[in-house]
Amino acid sequence: MAIQTNNSQDISWVLAQIEHIAQFGQNASGITRLAFTDDDLQARKYIIELMQSAGLAVITDAIGNIIGRYEPEGINPEAATVMTGSHLDTVPSGGKYDGVLGIVCGLAAVSRLKTRDELKHPLEVVVFAAEESSRFSFATIGSKAMAGLTNPAVLKRIKDHEEISLASELEKIGLKIDNALNAARPANSIKGFVELHIEHGELLDEKSINIGIVDRVSAPTRLKITVTGMPGHSGAISIAERQDALVSASLIVLAIRNIAAEYEYKGAIGTVTILKTRPGAINVIPGKVEMWVDIRGTEHESIVEMLQEIKDAVSSIADDNDTAVAIEVLASEKPVSLSQNLNQIIETVCSKLRLSSLRLDSRAGHDAMNIAYVAPAGLIFVPCKDGVSHNENEYINPKDIEAGLDVLTETLYQLAK
Ligand code: HGY
Ligand code: MN
Ligand code: MN
Ligand code: MN
């Protein structure tokens, strides 16, 4: 059942909720709460309880986003919504703050604003479904659908590594993937969206800055590279005769790392994050290697240039090692600039609260990058200790959470009054 401290507006309630939600998917090496798994469904159920006990009207939309809505008395029912929120799903062995911070602080901020009058807009807190690409290798599924950026044919092809489809996971919660388009919000129905999130990075912590205000959000380009050689007896084939797919793949991993090191100060970066060898037997020369590459960037030109350099390097390595190679582009999203007007409001709120702030780019992707297509969107960062995230040791100092909650509350108030 929900933990209820005396009021859901204060920081002790926020910290207690973060700890409580961390239990869903907690394992020996962090938190693994992948989208629509039982742990995620339990966490979703808990948040719905929290929203209901906070007096919000709760619905689940056609793609599985959970929306808690507060409608102040006497407002124009057509008034556009002021929205906040983030995600509940995690990466494998992730931390307790990534995503959850934005949801719990969103609820606390709405609880604070309920006590204020002069509100002229409804407030919504959203749990975006399947934000992390960890399960389906497809990022921000829920907020893409809300922003109308979804293609049903693409959604129907989405499967996880065990071939379980997104469609069947949605059915588990009573949703039909054919209806996913209904999650799209009508134009101008969202007055503004503000997400509070841990900085995936060390900048604020290193510079001892209280608040990050995000100007641009990196978007992912993702590749699947398949290297094909010739399997053979690992004891019987001479080195010169081999077509060893893993040797080519290893050189490709290093080449991508070196190219990324060249581009990281030009607004793009790339990482080989998953590698599978076939047949994976100790006495067989690997005949096939599949690898997945995660490219992020805020400069579209640099991403295009880096991609070309990677393609050139991959084909020459494959040739030199007598192996074949195929590159499949799985995703290619454009970097997104967030609302300068909204960032101005956030900056003014920070100075009124005597908090230091820094404009920065987000090297990670976030739901805000999709909502930015249909509404002014803002993304507020709080310092991430030593820049460690997507890791069980992810940590935010409670005083930074408090500052983030104050800035979120006042920014939402500026939009909703
Ligand atoms: O992968 C990301 O950029 C974010 O953590 N969803
Ligand atoms: Mn994340
Ligand atoms: Mn996140
Ligand atoms: Mn996010």
Characterize the structure shown:
The protein folds into two domains: 11-218 and 335-416, Zn peptidases (Aminopeptidase, 3-Layer(aba) Sandwich); 221-332, Alpha-Beta Plaits (2-Layer Sandwich), CATH 3.30.70.360. The chain has twelve helices and 17 strands. It has helices spanning 11-22, 38-53, 100-114, 141-146, 152-157, 166-172, 203-207, 245-263, 300-320, 340-352, 368-371, 398-416, and strands spanning 26-27, 30-31, 57-60, 66-70, 81-87, 123-128, 190-198, 211-217, 219-228, 232-233, 268-278, 284-285, 288-297, 324-332, 336-337, 357-362, 377-382. The strands form four sheets. Strands 3, 4, 5, 6, 7, 8, 15, 16 and 17 form a nine-stranded mixed sheet that branches. α1 packs antiparallel against α3 (100-114), α8 packs antiparallel against α9 (300-320) and α10 packs across α12. The two termini are 33 Å apart. It binds (2S)-amino(hydroxy)ethanoic acid and manganese (II) ion (MN) (3 copies). One manganese (II) ion binds next to β5 and β7.
